[in-house]
Write a structure and sequence with these properties.
Elements (H helix, E strand, L loop, with lengths): L5 E4 L5 H12 L3 E4 L4 H12 L6 E3 L7 H14 L5 E4 L14 H29 L3 E6 L12 H21 L4 E8 L2 E2 L9 H8 L6 E2 H12 L10 E4 L3 H4 L6
Parallel strand pairs: 1-2, 1-4, 2-3, 4-5, 5-6, 6-9, 7-8
Helix pairs in contact: 1-7, 3-4, 4-5
Length: 253
């Protein structure tokens, strides 16, 4: 029987992260999931555990903090002895006009999106190197790293940096059999976006394929990049946006 892979996923209490966790369970991985909110973490663990597909552990807290990153690695090594897959999905979006954007908002976006991703990747890579069996790392970017979107200058900057991180780390991680890629979702129906009653209609009109993504669309792509089927893919960004970046109409137009 093929041994289970062990996956760590941040920002997985709901939305895209939770759906990626569900997909990885379906494909045979053991999952350790994180969300900054303990309630969402506990709910996600309970929901996924009812699938009966494999082990699920939760680790709530700020995934950009050194302590929580260490806890995630310790959980994986204590319970399962390895780390095979990592999804750095946690991130925040703080909208604001460039001319009025505050230093505090800027620093928080960079702390969570860039530093959190960087140091989670670093911690996981150290383990993958030592265990000598390689691994797969997936970073979460955004279409805003590729096309201009009003009031998201800091967020777009942080996501573009994440894509360059994956590309740059090919040099340092490939010798250890560690693959690293990035996924860039476009408009996606999640708990957050559906709170806007016009979101689905707006993005259905703007998206060439006629609808925004479902979380399952993103999870399918993520699962592929983490799987052995993508064993010769590293340093790449996969955009999943129904074609929006090809034409890029603004929702504000």
């Amino acid at each position: 029987m093929k041994p289970h892979k062990v996956a760590i996923i941040t920002g997985a209490g709901q939305g895209i992260g939770l759906e990626i966790a569900r997909k990885l369970l379906e494909t045979g991985s053991t999952v350790i999931l994180n969300d900054i909110e303990k309630g969402l973490t506990d709910e996600a663990v309970a929901s996924l555990s009812r699938m009966g597909k494999g082990s699920v552990l939760g680790c709530p807290g700020d995934s950009a903090s050194e302590q929580v990153i260490a806890e995630l690695m310790d959980l994986a090594m204590h319970h399962f002895g390895k780390v095979d897959q990592v999804v750095a999905n946690a991130g925040i979006t703080l909208f604001g006009s460039f001319l009025d954007y505050s230093r505090s908002d800027f620093m928080e976006v960079m702390r969570v999106n860039q530093a959190g991703t960087f140091f989670l990747t670093q911690a996981a890579s150290r383990i993958m190197k030592d265990q000598e069996s390689g691994g797969a790392i997936l970073l979460t970017s955004s279409v805003t790293a590729h096309q201009s979107h009003e009031n998201l200058a800091a967020y777009a900057m942080s996501k573009s940096a994440i894509e360059m991180l994956a590309k740059n780390l090919v040099l340092e991680l490939a010798p250890f059999g560690i693959r690293i890629n990035t996924i860039a979702p476009g408009a996606t129906l999640t708990e957050r976006t559906t709170s806007d009653p016009d979101y689905a209609a707006t993005w259905s009109r703007l998206t060439p394929l006629g609808r925004p993504a479902m979380t399952g669309d993103i999870a399918e792509a993520a699962s592929f990049l983490l799987s052995d089927a993508a064993r010769h893919i590293t340093g790449q960004t996969l955009i999943v946006d129904g074609g929006w970046t090809s034409i890029s109409p603004s929702p504000y137009a």
